[in-house]
Design goal:
alpha+beta, Chorismate lyase, 2 domains, six-stranded antiparallel β-sheet, DNA-binding, 7 helices, transcription regulation, three-stranded antiparallel β-sheet, transcription, WH-like_DNA-bd_sf, Arc Repressor Mutant, subunit A
Amino acid sequence: MSKSTEELRRRIVADINAGTPGAKLGSERDLAEHYSTSRSSLRQMLAALEEAGLVHRVIGRAGGIFISHAQVQRSLSDVVGVPAFLANQGYVAGTRVLSTKITAPDRITQTALQIGATDFVLEIQRVRLADGSPISLELAQFPAESFPGLLEKQLGGSIYEILENDYGLVTSRADERIEAVNATPDEASLLAIRPRSALLLITRVTYDQNDVACEFSRDLFRGDRTRLGVTVQGRGIGVQSPVAAATVALHS
């Protein structure tokens, strides 16, 4: 992809992210003038964005190019990194690493990772992208003593793969809590949405093959781009499940 084509894509995607599903971007002629490009170049880019599920065309007098953010599905049944489930759904996964640091854990993190106040954690904050569009903001923490040198690794892909390949750790299970929250101004800016837009907050504690807590994370997924999926098994009437695989709690 040439530099000018990539710049055009970025500009259109930025306008899509700033809009709302169903909103009209404009007609093909209007958009070609707005982006100062030829209609043939614009048509090729719109075709790629339509295939990716970001826009759709409507023919007719009231037609035009409309925003149609495709939703990604996050499974609640598997412990899998964001790049893997995006790739499985046909998206090109991307990552922006915002910050990394070694820091002291707060009380919530201490409890989650079963560490003390004098211990340290490795903190990684990243924005996840689907076809170049921000989809989630994640803040992950790991026991510093367990993963020396982690912050020096290439952190643009799956950290779970790094933990398995470089540290011999295999994620065995994760306890997750899901809440609906509103985006703060800073979160909205990073996710290219309006402040107070709906977000899904997924708080997760991940355990390794020895049932030791290895990760505590807080992931914020865009509510307009994400749906949750879970597979449950029926055991027949009157048969009690030994473990509650998923729960939903209502806040008073």
